[in-house]
């Protein structure tokens, strides 16, 4: 089990990257570790993991564009823009390189950063997401699991759902965990209340819209073939309803060092369901 130092203060601050003002939560000293959250969450998703990592690392949990307390401009939610947001943040923090950990959408973003800017990522950990080399034939049987996405990815509909139908996100978040106790009411409220703010609701819609309408088809037509040189660990829950382990295939043809570990009995929100296990696996991988 990883050591913790609860006395370490978690400092909230805003970093002006020149692209946007980014809210981060920092704790600890040592080699930098960047934590990227998934949708519809924000940096609060890492609250149980940060104390474990901060005993030996400088931990930086980020609110991405349009989430939490970070700026939510009307545009800039494609993956290329989000990658540049992270690079700009590293530059603003004067970090030539960092270990990068991402959950859900943050995990897929971490893979993309490592592929496009390998010099900036020392080691990579992704949670509850697909690796870049997942084959279309593995996705097809699970397509029905995403029938809910048109309600948030459709222009003008998504923002209305996120703002005025809070039960939608509450249900989605609770279905994402294998154990309901891992997603208590106060955590659900923290995510739902943030997503309901008008700029954030528009941002959430745009994030989902860009991926669904402008990125999925090109990805399917032109599978990723760039080689992943960064040592990477991918953790998935055996009971993950959104990205089940069955979607994954062998990536050894294209990755120098990518390990996949299935966490038995866990769902889609590993940082909240199994924070100590997640922290232990991260620390072991970063050594």
TrEMBL record:
<dbReference type="InterPro" id="IPR000639">
    <property type="entry name" value="Epox_hydrolase-like"/>
</dbReference>
<dbReference type="InterPro" id="IPR000073">
    <property type="entry name" value="AB_hydrolase_1"/>
</dbReference>
<dbReference type="InterPro" id="IPR029058">
    <property type="entry name" value="AB_hydrolase_fold"/>
</dbReference>
<protein>
    <submittedName>
        <fullName>Epoxide hydrolase EphF</fullName>
    </submittedName>
</protein>
<dbReference type="GO" id="GO:0016787">
    <property type="term" value="F:hydrolase activity"/>
</dbReference>
<dbReference type="Pfam" id="PF00561">
    <property type="entry name" value="Abhydrolase_1"/>
</dbReference>
<keyword id="KW-0378">Hydrolase</keyword>
<feature type="domain" description="AB hydrolase-1">
    <location>
        <begin position="31"/>
        <end position="275"/>
    </location>
</feature>
């Amino acid at each position: 089990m990883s050591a913790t130092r609860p006395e370490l203060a978690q400092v909230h601050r805003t970093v002006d990257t020149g692209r946007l003002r980014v809210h981060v939560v920092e704790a600890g000293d040592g080699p930098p570790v960047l934590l990227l959250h998934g949708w519809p969450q924000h940096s609060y998703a890492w609250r149980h993991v940060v104390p474990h990592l901060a005993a030996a690392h400088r931990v930086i949990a980020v609110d991405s564009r349009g989430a939490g307390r970070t700026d939510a401009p009307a545009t800039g939610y494609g993956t290329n823009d989000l990658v540049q947001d992270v690079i700009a943040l590293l530059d603003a923090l004067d970090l030539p390189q960092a270990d990068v950990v991402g959950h859900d959408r943050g995990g897929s973003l971490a893979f993309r950063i490592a592929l496009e800017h390998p010099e900036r990522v020392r080691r990579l950990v992704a949670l509850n997401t697909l690796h870049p080399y997942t084959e279309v034939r593995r996705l097809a049987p699970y397509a029905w699991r995403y029938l809910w996405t048109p309600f948030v990815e459709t222009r003008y509909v998504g923002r209305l759902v996120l703002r005025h139908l809070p039960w939608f996100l509450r249900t989605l978040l609770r279905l994402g965990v294998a154990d309901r106790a891992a997603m208590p009411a106060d955590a659900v409220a923290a995510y739902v209340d943030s997503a309901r703010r008008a700029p954030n609701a528009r941002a959430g819609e745009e994030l989902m819209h860009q991926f669904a309408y402008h990125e999925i088809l090109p990805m399917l037509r032109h599978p990723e073939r760039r080689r992943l040189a960064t040592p990477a660990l991918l953790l998935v829950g055996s009971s993950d309803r959104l990205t089940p382990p069955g979607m994954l295939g062998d990536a050894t043809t294209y990755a120098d060092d990518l390990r996949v570990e299935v966490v038995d009995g866990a769902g889609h929100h590993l940082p909240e369901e199994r924070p100590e296990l997640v922290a232990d696996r991260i620390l072991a991988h970063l050594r």
